[in-house]
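Hi W.,

Here's what went into the run:
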Amino acid sequence: MAKKPLGPVRRTFSPWEEPSNQPFIEFQSVTKTFGDHIAVDNLSLKIYKREFHALLGGSGCGKTTMMRMLAGFEQPTSGCILLEGEDITRVPPHKRPVNMMFQSYALFPHMSVWDNIAFGLKQEAFSKREISARVAEMLRLVKLEPFARRKPHQLSGGQRQRVALARSLAKRPKVLLLDEPLAALDKKLREETQIELMNLQEELRMTFLIVTHDQEEAMNLADRISVMDAGHILQVATPGEIYEQPSSRYVADFIGDINFFECTVKGMNASVATLDSAELGTTLQVEVGEKPQLGSSVTLAVRPEKLRISFEKPEGENQNILQGEVWDIAYMGDVSIYHIKVSQDHTIRTIVTNTTRLVERPITWEDKVWLAFDYDAGVLLTA
Amino acid sequence: MQALPENEPASPQLEAEQHVATTSHSRWRWLVIAVPFLWLLVFFLAPFLMVFKISLSGQVLAIPPYAPQWDWATGLQGLQAFWQELSLDNYIWLSEDELYWKAYLSSIRIAGMATLLCLLIGFPMAYAMARAPKRMQPLLVMLVILPFWTSFLIRVYAWIGILKTEGLLNQFLLGLGVINEPLVILNTNIAVYIGIVYSYLPFMVLPLYATLEKLDTSLLEAAQDLGCPPLKTFWTITLPLAKPGILAGCFLVLIPAVGEFVIPDILGGSETLMIGKTLWVEFFSNRDWPLASAVAIVLLAILIMPIMLFQRQQQKSAEVGL
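Here's what came out:
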C-alpha cells in the first residue's frame, strides 16, 4: 500500500527533546501480568503535556492494558504511574482526572444524549447552570445540538461516536484516553473524524493518548507513536522517524511497506557502508550514522517509493543500481505497485505514481528494467 | 465537526424481508398466529366464561351444586328464563362480608412482602452469578433450577420438619445456645413468608440474572471513569438497566404468590388469611361453587392490572432493545 508523504510538519512541538522538561504522564517500569500471561513487561514511557501520543500495535501487544492502567481499571503488578509528578497508581478510577472514550462508546442506554454528556459534570460540585452551559458547549463542539433529547439507540454510529467524545471531553480532563475511537466508522467518516480530533486537540490544548492498531491513523493523528509488541515498546518517535528511521525490522515491517535485503557488512568508507548481499549477488551501499561491525549480518531496508524504475540504466553518483524483470503490477488507482524480480528468489516492490490518465503503461509485464536508490534512501537495521 | 449524514438509511434488507412476509408467507403466518389464539380460546377463555357463569348463579343442593342450568331443549324461552335467573348476588355478598376483603388485602400484603424479600435476596445472588467466571455460570444457573426436580409439595412439606418446635432449625439454634426455648415458627405468617420466598426465589433470580448478564461492564467502567463512585454507579447505572429484570422477577413472584394455596395451608396457621385458602374452603367445605367462582373472578380482576403493566414493560424494553 502506498504511504502518504508526511507533508509539512504540523507544528514545531517537541517537548521530549528537552531533557529538563517534566513528563506529564510517566510509566515507571510498569509490569502487568494476567495469570501466566505478561501483558506489559517492565515498560517505561514518558508523555508530555499537550502531546497527542499513540500506542500502536497488533492485538494482544499490551496497548489497551497500558491505557486501562492509566484510567485505573487495572492495577500494575509492579511499577508506578505518575501524572504531573504525582503517583496515581493506587488512585481509584473515579478520582483520576483522566477520561476515556471507549471503543464500544459505552453510552448509557437509559439516558438521553444530554444526560450522557452531563453525567460526569453531575458527579462534581457544578451548579445546574454551569452544567447546562457546559453541555450546550459540548453539543455545539460535536454538532449534535438538535439531538440532545434523543436516546443513544436513536442515533447513527457516527453520532454515537461524537456523543462519546463529547461526554469524555465535558469534564475537561487532564488526559483524554481514546480506545480505538474510530474503529467502528467507515473509511470516509474515519478520515473526517481524524481531522476533527486533531483540530479539537489543538483547540482544547489537552493531552491525548490514543490506542490503535491502525498505523495510518496513528501516523495521521499523533505527535509521537509508541510501537508495541508482546508487552514491550519497540520504538517511541515521531511518525516521520518511525517511518524513515525504524529501529528494528519489526517496526519497519509493521509500519508501511518495505523491502528487506539480508547482507553482511563488507567495508566502511567515511559514512557509507558497503554491504554484500548474497541473495542479490551484488554489493549495496548505504549511508549510516552509527558504524556497523565489519562482517556482521545486517538488514538493509528500503521503502518502495524510494526506488526509481527506468528502461535506461540510470546515470549518476551515490546510488545503488539493480537490474530485474517486471513480475507483477498491482494497480491501485493513484499508484501502481511493481513487483520486480531481481534474482531467482528475490522480488522487490516499488511504487510508481500514476501521473497521467494513460491506462496503457509504458512499463509492463516481463519488461527488463533498472532499479535505483540513493545511498541515503536505505536504512541499516541490526535488530 | 463536519456535517455528517443525520440519519442512516433504513436497511434495504429489512424492507425486503417485510415484503416477503406480506406476500408469499402470509397464509402460513396466519396459521402460526392462530395456534396460540386457539389454545387461549379453548384453555383460557372458555373455562373463564364457564366460571364467570357459575359466579352469577345461586347455590343449590344438587349435582352440579348451582342453578340455573340451561337446557338446550327448552329453546329460546328457556334461555330467556335462564338469563333472568342470573344475578350479581355473589359479588354483592363478597363486597359486604369483610372476611373476603380482608383475605384479598392480606394475600396482596403477604405476596408483596414475599416479593420484596425475594428481590432483596435474589438481586445479590443474580449479580454474583452474572459476574462469576463465564465457565461457572451454567453450573450456577443449574443450581438455581435444581429444586424444580423435586415435587413442589414435598419441598413445602419438608419445611415442616425444619420449622416445627422440635424441628431441625430449633435443634440447631438450641444446640448453639443462641436461644433457650424453641421458636414458634410453624403455623405462623413467618413460615408462610419462608415458604413463598423459598419456593419462588428461582423465578426472581432467573430473569434478574438474564438482565444482569447482558449488562455491558464497560458502562460501569465509563461511569466510574466519569467520576461516579462504585456505590452510586450501582444506583444510577446498574439498577435502572436491570429494571426489566426486576419487574419481570417481581411479577413472576407476585402474581402466583397472591393466589397461593398450598404454602399457607401447609405452613400457615389460623391467623394466616389468604384468598387461595378462602377459595378452597368455599369450594370444598361449603360447596358454594357460585361464591367460590366469584372469589376467583375478583382475584383475576385484581391480578390483571399488574399482568397488563408487566406486558407493557416487556413490550417497551423489547422496543428499546435492552
